Amino acid sequence: MLRTWLELFFQHGTAREVAGNRPLVLDDPQRVGMVAVGHVDVFAVPLENGQPSGARVHVCRAEVGQLFFGTQPERATGLGLIAVGTPDSQVLELPRASLQELDGDPAELAALLDAWIEGLTAGVAHGRLAGHVSLLATEGDSRHEAGKSVTPAHGTYWICGTGLTVRFLGKIELSLPDAKAVFPLAGSGWLETADRTKVWAARSESLVTDSRLWPGLERFHQTVLSSAAASAREADEAELDRLTLKSRFEDQLMQSTLAQLASTVEPERTGDTLLLQQEDPLLAAFRLIGQRLGVPIKTPRDLGQRSHRDPISAIARASQLRTRRVLLSGDWWRQDNGPLLAFCGEENRPVALLPISTKSYELVDPTTGSRTPLTRAGASAVGSFAYCFYRSFPPRALSPREILRFSLAGTRTDWLTVVLLGLAGGLLGMLIPIATGVLFGRIIPAAEHFQLLWLVLILAVTAVVMTLFEFVQGVASVRLETRMNSSVEAGVWDRLLNLPAPFFRQYSTGDLAMRAMGIARIRQVLTDAAMSSVLTFVFSLVSFALLFYLDARLALLATLLFLIIAGVTCWAAVVQLRYERENHHVRGRVASIVLQLLTGISRLRVAGAERRALAFWAKSFRLQTKLGFQAQLVSNNASTFLATVPILTSSVIFGAVAFLGSEKLYLATFLAFNAAFVQIIAASVTVSSTVTSLLEIVPLYERAKPILVAEPEFNQDKREPDDLRGDIEISHVSFRYHDDGPLVLDDVSIHIRQGEFVAFVGPSGAGKSTILRLLLGFETPTTGSIYYDREDLARLDYQAVRRQMGVVLQNSQLTPGSILSNIVGSSLLTIEDAWEAARLSELDAEIAQMPMEMYTVITEGASTLSGGQRQRLMIARAVVSKPKILLFDEATSALDNVAQAKVAESLDNLKATRVVVAHRLSTIVNADRICVIDRGRVVQQGRYHDLMEQPGLFADLAKRQLA
Questions:
Q1: Quick one: 352 and 474 in the same domain?
Q2: For residues 155 and 442, what is the distance between their CA atoms, to the nearest angstrom?
């Protein structure tokens, strides 16, 4: 019987104690060690005269029963390996040649070799992931396309080739001239190929007794040391760049401070320009745009690393901005499109395009700090595309005051214009009653023809000026309304997209859409007519003061009349508001019913339930119509009353004059009083009519309020994860949807290893889809935790985690547009990436047969595609960014067995962790592990064939489907 290698080392090896202050230098390729007690950590460190003499870089850890090997220090840098243990660690050493002389198990030795190779490879890879992957899945010969990263599907392979030149981890050049030169490649490593390559591969078990093994292992050791040395150089260069940038920043900060102190003309601009020149041009351009928008620009912590593929989106997300790519066409620089981010020159230099008036822009180059007004020639130097930006609401509950402040940001000129011109119009309006009094009090009695001409001229000029005021005020009102609408609408939809998933369980889709669109309706109600009528009333108070100057007794009577008008209006408003509140609630319910019926019209026809559907809709619609009629009836009665107000109030005023006697009131004074009174009554009637229409705002805001006060998912305290590698752990998770509801999951613990294919099966309602929702951060565990690469999901930015996943859920839908836009979305991925994703989902051949190929239009509901094509297109969308984690919920249920097998084989090439929820068990035959869920608990685990042989729930489910 073969003995274990640990037993053999205890029998034949030499014991050595290894502690932190007594490291073991691994510089002899002819020696091999095994950990007997404790553990040892392997470090890469410069060696001088056989002793460590520099900073240590951790590479891997060897536990009890694991091997570690010696190797010559790297020639160029003298970098070598040392083993450092704990105070009680003990290792056993043997000559390497003894490994082939002792009667140990070759398969166990191969596994020990694989563990050592995987540990060293993972230590120098630092979690970096390969790009376009070509998998080694079987022993023997295989071909790999140029530009691919060759990596094992599972475990470790030893490879060789004729004249093979590759790059280990994309950094270290490696030459394998002939079949005698082999090289081990573990799952966390890869070899980049420059040309189409043919390689031969074998498992470690096949090479344990092969003479090529030890030279190949030494070649691997030297390559690992070269990679560690390259990483150390990169770290030193990065630290030098950081120190240089810090020194440069401090110099620029000092210059900026001195410039701000010395400048008396434009200190802020001078200081800002100097500060902008010291940092990344793109980030500096963002800061210029952020200053104009009133949004602080934040630097993503991983800018220049993972996010370098799309730094614009990374900076925008960190600063809570939404971006949109726009085409710069026509005389775009002569229109106010807000601040823009664009690129200039052949080197695509980022610049900020800032509006300096409603019809002109200036180009600010953050590299030089220059500011150039744009002309046609300057605009032609700017690229064809730019990015515009939308502000987000602050990530907290919002009050109406905060929303108003948010909507008015950047509109100071417009609202000041509206208010000041309204005030000026009110003051000019006083000229009419004053001129009336002068006309009948002085000019007509004295027959002053010349003064009459002057009066006519003054009134004519006043009319022209008021017309101009009204025109400018109207333009400013339209600009104000448009900007407010743009800001608030973008903010509302951004808030909706950032709300946590449990929020949406409270409302049906149609009702929530009505609530969200209520903000736009509020903007429509608050038109320039409503604003101008309110302003007219406010500024007509000047004329109200004139009434008391002309005759206090009549002014008091006029005040009583105004209070009566206000009282009737308020009473009508209260009654109408009651109906409007209930009406909007019912309208939301009707909208939900209509949406459900429209989306399910085909099912209604199949079931012959059209009449029942109509009756169901009519019941709610009848109530909506009734409430709307009652509210409109109150509004009509109020409008009828207001239509009689001018005649009734004038009759009261004339009656009061008759009662008081004409000897106590001069004709000119009365006519002036009457003119001012008519102005105020007209304003009062207008405002009263407007108030009844403005009442709709109250229920609209009340319905939109849940959206505005709900806390979004964004949390500044949570950080973005590093590149996810695919290790997932569900640790003692229990979950219930409501505090008093039943447990949907009960103490579930599952560890999904990197690259593993795990499937969840079970009866309906067992909790399978809930697990996916928890993994996506849509729900929060009641107890327990979820870890990604050993980091607690609760401490990570949920949205950042999801961006690194590929997800296809049961209710996933395609969006109207082209096939290309459905696959790549708004990312910077190209059409080549879309074709690669289509190939992985086995859809490329069918797309190629379509007349417009990738540009084929998909309509609402994607009725032009079959169910299988829709599913494969959603899979292509999920895999286009080559994520390391895939979450599928019945993603291949509409595919036949052949198509399903091809898709599964293609997905294996991604080396991604796959978590699949399946009802159709044939889709998970090849899963590495199947977890059977029943009543919120994991009741069985294992591979398909093993579970089929065990009595239990899985076998019962399978028998039903096979039957």
A1: no
A2: 109
